[in-house]
Write a structure and sequence with these properties.
Elements lengths: L7 E5 L2 E2 L6 H16 L7 E4 L1 H9 L8 H16 L2 E2 L5 E2 L1 E7 L9 E5 L6 H8 L2 H23 L10 H16 L9 H19 L7 H15 L3 H10 L7 E7 L10 E6 L11 E6 L3 H5 L6 E2 L15 H4 L1 H18 L3 E8 L2 E9 L4 H13 L5 H5 L4 H8 L2 E2 L1 H6 L2 E4 L1 E4 L2 E7 L2 H9 L4 E5 L7 H6 L2 E4 L7 H9 L2 E4 L5 E3 L4 E4 L2 E4 L3 E5 L4 E4 L4 E2 L6 H13 L3 E5 L3 H9 L5 E5 L10 H12 L3 H26 L3 E5 L5 H4 L4 H11 L3 H10 L12 H6 L1 H20 L5 E6 L5 H22 L7 E6 L2 H5 L1 H7 L2 E4 L1 H9 L10 H6 L16 H15 L4 E4 L7 H9 L4 E4 L4 H24 L1
Parallel strand pairs: 4-5, 17-18, 18-19, 19-20, 27-28, 27-34, 28-29, 29-30, 30-31, 31-32, 32-33, 33-34
Antiparallel strand pairs: 1-2, 1-3, 3-8, 6-7, 6-8, 9-10, 9-12, 10-11, 12-13, 14-26, 15-25, 16-20, 17-24, 21-22, 22-23, 24-25
Helix pairs in contact: 4-5, 5-6, 5-7, 5-8, 6-7, 13-15, 13-20, 15-36, 20-36, 21-23, 22-23, 23-28, 25-26, 28-29, 29-31, 31-34, 35-36
The chain binds phosphoenolpyruvate (PEP) and magnesium ion (MG).
């Protein structure tokens, strides 16, 4: 016969049937209560009814397994034995609590009932036992309030309407009693008054609910157990699960535990503590406590709690007595438990305790939530003490927490109370605050006179770049995560929110309208670019420490653990220097066209425009010759800055329309230089107009139609490298051909490269000139034919911005109009331009790598789309066997961490599999 399923796990008196690693079955609370019991830490005895019962309950029309009754009775008998009391016994009654506890913490979402077992029969015994009549009637009124609300009303599905619920009605009675007796606080009510109140409560329950308040302890217990299971499917819990992505079928466990009381007088107390400071990470025991109180009084903020110890008193709490001073013996015992728990769990714990008449009891321990700063400090200090392994250490800081450490951010406290104006896409990191301006020129002018500004645009184009540089932050109504504004901002580590569709930005009227509100030029707004939230007003910001030594130390640990390489997308010597400072091991994408944006770009931009508007090969060749020194010097500078680390230089991929000059003055200048009329310039510009520029004359197509353009660039790259070698320096360029869809395109360009190589080698008299030639894989056809592409490509770099655009058929600059609805209606789980769509686009990548390596087993593979800086996508890149990811320099630390975490997760999965 199969062994009967075990539904109830007992813990008490130093022995528990459960363990910490049984969270799936016992929930977090139950598993940790069992673990603490086994550690001989004083935990009131109790038992956990498993999550399997919850699952069974919902699968069987809200009925329990037949064996449950007997199992609960047996466990309760054990609790009675340990506590030397009996549930329902008039002489020596045991009271219990009933609490929920799911696998993942769902704070405040489910129900709790305390003081179960108080009845007209047990109250006198309880009074005799405690010698405290007031305490017992107070406990009884708390039971009636909680139980009638949680069990008799909510779990029974009564819909009494807003403000008509039983809890509110009972609170009215209590207020009336306080009023009539002149009591100010609940604690001022005397025993007799509370006793009368309890009678009124019971009558009210009968009147409102139509049933008597149960006076049978077993009925109370089973009512509470049922209510906990019911609360798993309460509205609050369901919404919380949706937000946190917790599956509905996990279920909750129920913990039934002997009551201990922190409100039995001045030798009783209750408190909440963290084994280290959760805000700073400092290795100091930190917490709060209250004498003569129950746990809910500490968390509900009814009374101001006292500091736990002398060391953590602040100027605001210096006058309050600490537990260390008031009950030194108990504090020492608690401190020993703190050490014991940290040593055991090897992580900061969040604990709850109660002191009943001088005896300490632990009610909970769980891994404590912490700020980014605290997470980093704790991880580094624990690593230094060899308290945890490198593998454990790198999992202790979430990638999002690094954002807090790398960028100036809005003060989180101020953010909580600020007015949200709108939400958009989190395109550039950190926080910024400034005055609203509407044009790039104003952004520059205002900044020059010392103002801080946020540049607000419907969308941006290269002519806004100066303004984008000058502004403290950028806000656009249109565009996606891979739109031009987003790419540029991220590259600079500048705070930026794009696709903020709710904002009507009217640059002519100089107004932003959102809902019924209008903002004008000069009004303050604040941006949280890591979350995509726009706030009204000027919020305070918090500065990062640029040379945070703990961060440097922590990232070194990450490097020791990870397998995936981390490079940066960098377009200039300056960016390259930043990239190296953040630990980049190379450049995975140098977008040549970016040298035509921003500071000092006027001259090369002019020449590029000339090249674009050239009509004949001669004109174009002449323009190329003029452009050549700019391109070479820029590339040489970057190669030198990277000092022999690989630099992937992409041949020009300019969206031509973005580079066509706007405005008469600029067009005239160009006309003069080309020796043609203004009208001709306009005509040539119009001829460049494309209906669909993203799928137009870009990337390699430009090099196929204008081989002289490719030739000029290849020469610039190879001569830059040759010059460096001649100067005794190192250079390792990788030439990358963009927007390819067939190997024939690669072969065509390879011929040009081979010819130029021979010329450069001869010119410089070099024995060897090392470089690679590869391609971007950003068109689905290229991924599908990767076996062929690899014949001509020595490396692949997945351009997931375009691969997503073309895989989905979503224009990357126009998703703002529909993506929010796609997410809200759950058509897509996430914006595929932010995190790789593993199911579809991911499949193209997987297939591309597999097919490519079938042809060329050592094919080097990386990613250079924006996904290269997204932690979930980095895990994916690790799992599909890429060699490296490449992302904005400012995201390099996050990528180093995410790559290390991917390696640890993979090893853990393999270990689990091997065990099975
Ligand atoms: C890409 O498409 O992913 C890419 C990196 O190229 P770009 O964003 O410049 O088109
Ligand atoms: Mg691309």
């Amino acid at each position: 016969m199969a062994k009967a399923k075990k539904y109830v796990y007992f813990f008490g008196s130093g022995k528990a049937e459960g363990r910490a690693d049984m969270k799936e079955l016992l929930g977090g609370k139950g598993a940790n209560l069992a673990e603490m019991t086994n550690l001989k830490i004083p935990v009131p005895a109790g038992f956990t009814i498993t999550t399997d019962v919850c699952t069974y309950y919902y699968q069987h029309g809200r009925r329990y397994p037949a064996e449950l009754k007997a199992a609960v009775a047996a466990a309760l008998a054990k609790v009675e034995k340990v506590m030397a009391k009996k549930f329902g016994d008039p002489e020596n009654p045991l009271l219990v609590s009933c609490r929920s506890g799911a696998r993942a913490s769902m704070p405040g979402m489910m129900e709790t009932v305390l003081n179960i077992g108080l009845t007209t029969a047990t109250i006198p015994g309880m009074i005799r036992l405690t010698g405290n009549e007031r305490f017992v009637w107070d406990a009884y009124r708390r039971l009636i309030m909680m139980y009638s609300d949680v069990v008799m009303e909510k779990a029974a599905g009564l819909e009494l309407g807003e403000g008509k619920g039983i809890r509110v009605r009972l609170e009215h009675l209590m207020d009336a009693m306080k009023h009539d007796t002149g009591a100010k606080a609940d604690t001022d009510l005397a025993a007799g008054q509370l006793q009368r109140l309890c009678a009124q409560f019971r009558a009210k329950v009968q009147e409102v609910i139509g049933k008597p308040f149960p006076d049978d302890p077993q009925e109370q217990l089973w009512g509470a157990i049922g209510a906990v299971f019911q609360s798993w499917n309460g509205k609050r819990s369901i919404s919380y699960r949706r937000i946190e992505g917790i599956p509905d079928d996990w279920g909750t466990a129920t913990n039934v535990q002997a009551m201990v009381f922190g409100n039995m007088g001045d030798d009783s107390a209750t408190g909440v503590a963290f084994t280290r400071n959760p805000a700073t990470g400092e290795n100091k025991f930190f917490g709060e406590w209250l004498t003569n109180a129950q746990g809910e009084d500490v968390v509900a903020g009814i009374r101001t709690p006292n500091p736990l110890n002398i060391a953590t008193k602040s100027e605001h709490t210096a006058h309050l007595k600490s537990l260390e001073e008031v009950m030194p013996g108990v504090y020492q015992a608690l401190f020993a438990i703190r050490n014991n728990l940290e040593k055991h769990y090897r992580d900061m714990q969040d604990i709850e305790f109660t002191i009943e008449k001088g005896t300490l009891w632990m009610l909970q321990t769980r891994t404590g939530k912490r700020t980014g700063h605290a997470a980093l400090r704790m991880a580094v200090e624990m690593l230094r003490e060899r308290f945890i392994t490198k593998q454990v250490g790198v999992m202790r800081v979430a990638p999002a927490q690094l954002d807090e450490l790398l960028h100036r951010i809005l003060d989180p406290k101020a953010e909580k109370n600020a007015k949200v104006l709108a939400k958009g896409l989190p395109a550039g990191p950190g926080g910024a605050t400034g005055k609203v301006v509407f044009t790039a020129a104003e952004a520059v002018a205002w900044t020059e006179r010392g103002e801080k500004v946020i540049l607000c645009r419907k969308e941006t184009n290269p002519e806004d770049v100066e303004g984008m540089r000058a502004a403290a932050g950028i806000l656009t109504a249109l565009g996606g995560m891979t739109s031009h504004a987003a790419l540029v901002a991220r590259g600079w580590g500048k705070c930026c929110i794009v696709g903020c569709g709710a904002l009507k930005i009217d640059a002519a009227a100089k107004t932003i309208t959102v809902a019924d509100q209008t903002l004008r030029e000069g009004d303050w707004i604040s941006l949280n670019g890591s979350k995509g939230v726009v706030y009204q007003g000027q919020l305070p910001t918090v500065e990062p420490d640029p040379k945070n030594p703990m961060l440097v130390e922590f990232l070194k640990t990450c490097d020791a653990v990870r397998r995936l390489g981390v490079r940066a997308n960098a377009d200039s010597p300056k960016d390259a220097a930043v990239a190296r400072k953040f630990g980049a091991e190379g450049i995975g994408l140098l977008r040549t066209e970016h040298m035509f944006y921003g500071e000092g770009a006027d001259e090369p931009l002019f020449k590029l425009r000339k090249m674009i508007l050239s009509k004949t090969p001669e004109e174009r060749r002449a323009a190329c010759d003029e452009l050549y020194p700019h391109v070479k010097s820029d590339i040489k500078g970057t190669l030198a800055a990277m000092d022999g680390l690989p630099v992937t230089i992409r041949l020009l991929d300019p969206p031509l329309h973005e580079f066509v000059p706007q405005g008469e003055a600029k067009q005239k200048e160009l006309a003069d230089s080309l020796g043609i009329s203004l009208d001709d310039v306009r005509k040539r510009a119009e001829a460049l107009h494309e209906s669909n520029p993203m799928m137009g004359h870009r990337g390699v197509r430009l090099g196929i139609t204008y081989p002289e353009v490719s030739e000029m660039q290849v020469r610039a790259i190879l001569e830059a490298a040759a010059e460096l070698l001649k100067e005794g320096k190192k250079a390792l360029p990788e030439i990358m051909i963009p927007v390819t869809c067939t190997v024939a395109e690669l072969q065509n360009q390879a011929e040009i490269i081979a010819k130029v190589k021979a010329e450069v080698v001869a010119k410089f008299g070099l024995k060897r000139l090392d470089f690679l030639v590869g391609t971007m894989i950003e068109i689905p056809r290229a991924a599908l034919t990767a076996n062929k592409m690899a014949e001509a490509a020595e490396f692949f770099s997945f351009g997931t911005n375009d691969l997503t655009q073309m895989g989905f058929g979503f224009s990357r600059d126009d998703i703002g109009a529909f993506m929010p609805d796609y997410i809200a209606k759950k058509i897509l789980a996430a914006d595929p331009f932010q995190t790789i769509d593993q199911e579809g686009v991911g499949e193209l990548i997987r297939m591309g790598i597999e097919r490519g390596r079938a042809t060329r087993p050592k094919l080097k593979v990386g990613i250079c789309g924006e996904h290269g800086g997204d932690p979930a996508s980095i895990h994916f890149c690790h799992n599909v066997g890429m060699n490296y990811v490449s992302c904005s320099p400012f995201r390099v630390p996050i990528a180093r961490l995410a790559a290390a975490q991917a390696a640890v997760s993979e090893a853990a999965k393999a270990k689990k599999k091997a065990k099975k």
